Amino acid sequence: MNLSEQIRQLCQEKNAIIMAHYYQRPEIQDVADFVGDSLALAQVAATTDADIIVMCGVHFMAETAKILCPDKKVLIPEPAAGCSLADSCKAEDLAAWKAEHPDHLVVSYVNTSAAVKALTDVVVTSSNALKIVKQLPEDKPILFGPDQNLGGYINLMTGRKMDLWNGGCHVHARFSVEAILSLKQQYPDTKVLAHPECKAVVLQHADVIGSTQALLNYAKEHPEQKRFIVATESGILHEMQKACPDVAFIPVPAEGGGCNECEYMRMNTLQKLYDCLLNESNEIVVDESVAKDAIRPIQRMLEMS
Ligand code: 13P
Ligand code: SF4
Question: Which atom of ligand 2 is nearest to the CA of 23?
Answer without folding.
Answer: 5
